[in-house]
Amino acid sequence: QEQLMESGGGLVQPGGSLRLSCAASGFTLDYYAIGWFRQAPGKEREGVSCISSNDRNTYYADSVKGRFTISRDNAKNTVYLQMNSLKPEDTAVYYCAADSGFQGMCVPISTLYTYWGQGTQVTVSS
């Protein structure tokens, strides 16, 4: 059974850092584009970042560009989202998602992804 599991969320002060992990079981992430999405209370889910299956293409939302970095470790079957200089507006539940249908690209559109994790809470507050 294909599953994704996020970890690494928590409470952090403004300006701090967190690294989220997205570990896959039941399938190999090598052939999948991975997206990170977040959803804050009362807001729509938004695409934060994504990485193509061949790692050649990445996307970052303007709100996180220069602060977040997406990366992949195929040996561990895990994708990471390094989040630096966190702001209160980054507070949300963060989800990772995977899909094999993007042919070397990735897109930050949640409805196009097949597999989803359960989410991890990130709270940025002093």
Mean pLDDT: 96
Unreliable runs, pLDDT <50, ≥5 residues?
none
Number of helices: 0
Percentage of helical residues?
A: under 10%
Question: What is the string of SSEs from the N terminus onward?
Answer: EEEEEEEEEEE
Spatial shape:
globular
Largest sheet: 7 strands, mixed
Separation of the first and last Cα atoms: 40 Å
Portion of residues in beta strands equals over 45%
The radius of gyration computed from the alpha-carbon positions, rounded to a whole number of angstroms, is: 13 Å
The overall strand count is 11
Give me the secondary-structure category. mainly beta
SSE layout:
Elements: E1 3-7, E2 10-12, E3 18-25, E4 33-39, E5 46-51, E6 58-60, E7 68-73, E8 78-83, E9 92-99, E10 115-116, E11 120-124
